[in-house]
């Protein structure tokens, strides 16, 4: 009788242990498999930030000469920033580009909706496509920077465009070109200086390939910005 | 219970569970819906939509009072999004089809993305409930768009800004009273910011009618 009860409790204990192990395993289980990136759980570890973290990271992008960003995100790259900074930018581009073209006297003005798909395509391709290419190239050349860290770095570099978009409301051509050039310089410096630490381990030619890719993409982004969204408004 | 229903999909499941009719219990509603006249079905659905809209118009701060909104349905958001897209599309002189399509996609895609974002940040949201709430809360923006359409010539830019601003604040406040209880405590601001952006985006279109 005693043994019977003992056995049962032993089995129960084992069952409990197994189920608790299973719970722990399920909680820590990283989705593996070929299509793991299509599940929601795959991306959950990359949203582990609070608003103070996000603000700190955005502040880090405005001071490009201090290469602190990678230390900020080391171990905790997030995807919230890249996605929603770009979404904010799309809204701001649409809002401000349309505000800019309002003219009280003209009768037949309408809302230029084409900025929305254009901005969406431009921003998301550059914010997510360039890191893809960069990460592949860097992996090939032997730099030790994970894919999500590159996306995070690139996505936050877009936050330079936030004040620039607001300032683009003004109609003065010279002013617009000045702030576009400033934005280009700021974000390119931010990206290059932060990548410098990793790149210094490479030879000179390989370093310049990566720097070249970065600068080209930034240049095309800012040029597109100026020429398509905030082009000269005829009075 | 809902397995017996021939159209056991989620949308009808939400409708069949909505209980507020003439003291009928759930089983009776279940059985009668197949044989009733079409007008009855339509009136019941319209009543349900209006009932939910009353929750949007008078934002309730306490979450328990909003429990009825958990019976999600997608008819309301569909009607509201069509109305908004049509209102904004008709008023534009060119590319009205692009505007219609863009507003539609922004509304549904935006609701989906906000819900997935809340889920990724650890919130306890059910996907369709959240899409339903976000869709219904577009109603004030709809009202603003219709009002501005009909009284176009009387309204200067500044007055439109005020009307749209009021509508935007109303929508956001309404949806926050439901959504914020479902979000993760420490990540509330970054879960809620996309909702703010979403309604701002939709309201901005109304200024330019």
From TrEMBL, chain A:
Q: Where is the Yip1 domain?
A: 69-217
Q: What are the start and end residues of every segment in region (Disordered)?
A: 1-26
Kindly give the membrane topology term recorded for this protein.
Answer: Multi-pass membrane protein
Q: Name one GO molecular function term.
A: small GTPase binding
GO CC list: Golgi apparatus; Golgi membrane
Q: Which GO terms describe its biological process?
A: vesicle-mediated transport
Location relative to the cell: Golgi apparatus membrane; Membrane
Q: Which family is it part of?
A: Belongs to the YIP1 family.
Protein name, UniProt field: Protein YIPF
Native source species: Paramecium tetraurelia
UniProtKB/TrEMBL annotation, chain B:
- Give the main localization category: Golgi
Is Secreted one of the keywords?
no
GO terms for biological process, alphabetical: endoplasmic reticulum to Golgi vesicle-mediated transport
| Source lineage | Eukaryota, Sar, Alveolata, Ciliophora, Intramacronucleata
Q: How does it sit in the membrane?
A: Multi-pass membrane protein
Where is this gene product found? Golgi apparatus membrane; Membrane
Q: Where is the Yip1 domain?
A: 69-205
Q: Which family does it belong to?
A: Belongs to the YIP1 family.
Q: What is this protein called?
A: Protein YIPF
Q: Which residues cross the membrane?
A: 72-92, 98-118, 130-151, 157-178, 190-208
Q: Which PANTHER family does the entry mention? A: GOLGI MEMBRANE PROTEIN YIP1 (PTHR21236), PROTEIN YIPF6 (PTHR21236:SF1)
What are the alphabetically sorted keywords of the record?
Membrane, Transmembrane, Transmembrane helix
């Amino acid at each position: 009788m005693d043994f019977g009860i003992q056995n049962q409790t032993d089995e129960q204990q084992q069952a409990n242990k197994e189920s608790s192990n299973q719970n722990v395993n399920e909680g820590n289980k990283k989705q593996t498999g070929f299509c793991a990136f299509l599940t929601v759980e795959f991306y959950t570890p990359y949203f582990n930030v609070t608003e103070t973290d996000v603000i700190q990271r955005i502040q880090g992008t405005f001071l490009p000469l201090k290469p602190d960003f990678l230390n900020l995100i080391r171990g905790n790259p997030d995807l919230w920033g890249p996605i929603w900074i770009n979404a904010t930018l799309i809204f701001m581009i649409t809002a401000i580009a349309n505000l800019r073209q309002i003219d009280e006297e003209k009768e037949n003005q309408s809302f230029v909706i084409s900025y929305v798909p254009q901005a969406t395509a431009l921003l998301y391709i550059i914010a997510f496509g360039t890191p893809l290419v960069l990460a592949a190239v860097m992996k090939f050349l032997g730099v030790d920077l994970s894919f999500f860290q590159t996306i995070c770095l690139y996505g936050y570099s877009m936050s330079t465009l936030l004040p620039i978009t607001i300032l683009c409301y003004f109609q003065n051509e010279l002013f617009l070109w000045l702030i576009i050039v400033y934005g280009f310089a700021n974000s390119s410096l931010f990206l290059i200086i932060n990548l410098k630490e990793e790149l210094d381990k490479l030879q000179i030619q390989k370093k310049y390939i990566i720097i070249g890719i970065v600068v080209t993409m930034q240049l095309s982004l800012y040029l597109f910005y100026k020429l398509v969204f905030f082009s000269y408004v005829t009075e | 219970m809902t397995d017996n229903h021939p159209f056991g999909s989620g949308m009808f499941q939400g409708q069949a569970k909505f209980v507020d009719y003439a003291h009928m219990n759930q089983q009776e509603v279940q059985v009668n819906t197949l044989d009733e006249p079409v007008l009855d079905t339509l009136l019941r659905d319209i009543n349900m939509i209006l009932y939910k809209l009353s929750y949007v118009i008078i934002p309730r701060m306490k979450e328990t009072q909003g429990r009825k909104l958990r019976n999600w349905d997608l008819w309301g958001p569909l009607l509201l999004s069509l109305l908004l897209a049509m209102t904004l599309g008709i008023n534009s002189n060119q590319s009205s089809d692009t505007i219609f399509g863009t507003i539609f996609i922004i509304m549904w895609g935006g609701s989906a993305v906000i819900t997935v974002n809340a889920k990724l940040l650890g919130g306890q949201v059910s996907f369709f409930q959240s899409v339903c709430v976000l869709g219904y809360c577009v109603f004030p923006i709809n009202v603003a768009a219709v009002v501005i359409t009909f009284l176009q010539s009387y309204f200067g830019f500044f007055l439109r800004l005020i009307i749209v601003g009021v509508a935007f604040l109303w929508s956001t406040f309404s949806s926050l009273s439901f959504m914020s209880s479902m979000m993760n405590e420490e990540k509330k601001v970054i879960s809620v910011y996309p909702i703010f952006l979403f309604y701002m985006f939709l309201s901005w279109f109304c200024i330019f009618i």
